[in-house]
Amino acid sequence: MGKEMSSIRRGCTILAVAALGAAACTPSQQAVSGASGPQMLMSNGWIDVTATLDPATTPVYEGDAPMKFDFLKDMRKGDALTLSAYSMGAHSGTHIDAPMHFVLGGASIERVPLEPLIGSARVIEIPDGVQAIDAAELNRHEWKGAQRVLFRTRSSLRGWMSSSTFHRDFAYVAPDAAQLLADAGVQLVGVDYISAEQFGAPAPMTHRILLGKGIPIVEGLSLAGVSGGDYDLIVLPIKVGGHEGAPARAILRRRMQ
Ligand SMILES: [Zn+2]
């Protein structure tokens, strides 16, 4: 548990449970972390489900631009200030794909409306053994009526969003499931690894189906500490002009029924 976490804990009692940990805490701020699991911050019931961007722990999709974070100046080394430069792909860590990613003439990231990015969302737990979230798998779960659907898969269970090793066998949304979600009017689809598409898919059909209907895709969520059910979601991408994707901060809060 790092120094940063200790300062946030503020007298909370942390009870470690399995790899994730659970916190018994009355104040509004708490932090939960496991030895190898992602750090999860909470405030007033909001849970941070963003993967931390860090070249040492962030997976980079095969063939994508490498991540490089540098200190141009560093007060710890005697400089008058600390100043950093970041270099990374637009689809690094937790991020949003805008229609422009796979639709010619589609909206760029700063033009994605706020409406799909803020509101009720259902987290669906996909078992570790499932790699293809196809229509049959989707229909094993209660997804109908959900405005936004987030899949918690083997990637969260295995801590893959906090491991720099790229895994090809991540769970993905198959095109027939994407079509069901799009036809049902779902406003946003989220996954917990850096792509919603099957690795090596012959064509990016899942992206085309969702983005073609103007449905943004959140990729790279960190859902390890989140169980299935209904939440409020806020996920806001960095406002970059004229490009097809950007890193985002994502938070969830359990819905009171
Ligand atoms: Zn992406």
Describe the structure.
The chain contains 5 helices and 16 strands. It has 257 residues and is of the alpha+beta class. The chain folds into 2 domains: 3-48, no CATH class; 95-254, Putative cyclase (Glucose Oxidase, domain 1), CATH 3.50.30.50. It has a 7-stranded mixed beta barrel. It has a two-stranded antiparallel sheet with strand order 1-2. It has a two-stranded antiparallel sheet with strand order 6-7. Helix 5 (205-212) links the parallel strand 13 and strand 14 (217-219). Helix 4 packs parallel to helix 5. The longest helix has 9 residues, at 175-183. It starts with a helix and ends with a strand. The relative contact order is 0.20. Mean pLDDT is 88; it is low at 1-39. It binds zinc ion. Zinc ion is lined by residues 91, 95, 97, 219, 245. Residues 91, 95, 97, 219, 245 line the site of zinc ion.
How would you summarize what this structure contains?
The chain has five helices and 16 strands.
Proportion of β residues?
Answer: 25-35%
Given helix and strand content, the structural type is alpha+beta
Radius of gyration: 18 Å
The CATH topology of the largest domain: Glucose Oxidase, domain 1
CATH class of the largest domain: Alpha Beta
Topology as H/E string?
A: HEEEEEEEEEEHEHEHEHEEE
Give the termini distance in whole angstroms: 34 Å
Find the CATH superfamily of the largest domain. Putative cyclase
Roughly what percent helix? 10-25%
Largest sheet: 7 strands, mixed, barrel
Continuous helix count = 5
Gross morphology = globular
Count the E strands: 16
Report the bound ligands by name, code or SMILES: zinc ion
Stretches where pLDDT is under 50 for at least 5 consecutive residues are 1-39
Q: For the largest beta sheet, what order do the strands appear in spatially?
A: 8-14-13-11-9-15-16
